[in-house]
Amino acid sequence: MLKDLGILVYEIAEVNDILGVFNSRLARLASASSGAPRWSGSPYKGLEPFGTADSPVFFGRGPERQEALARLRQAAAQGTAFLLLHGSSGVGKSSLARAGLLADIRTQTSDADHWRTAVLA
Q1: Which of 4, 16, 77, 107 is 20 to 30 A away from residue 95, measured at CA?
Q2: Do 57 and 110 fall into the same domain?
Q3: Is residue 37 situated within a structural domain?
């Protein structure tokens, strides 16, 4: 019945059987996503802000990143390319700026070589 629904069913007798099935499925998934960036270690940094090197695992702020980049482009077109991010402590301003916006400028902007960026800590 489960097979009729397209659900994979494995006969498991021992824990090692489970590990074997798990490892083979994991290897198949890894080879299927071979073009995806690799990440080692935990992507959760606690209170430490994400940096540009963390951009492959920085998720969940897509609309904010798009809005920030659009506002920055608009300001640049007016000759005032400056964007101030403000908010309560710990909400992710630094991560948004570094792993989000700065990474987007470097990868999505055709004239990224003409943009000057500075990270003030």
Answers
A1: 77
A2: yes
A3: no
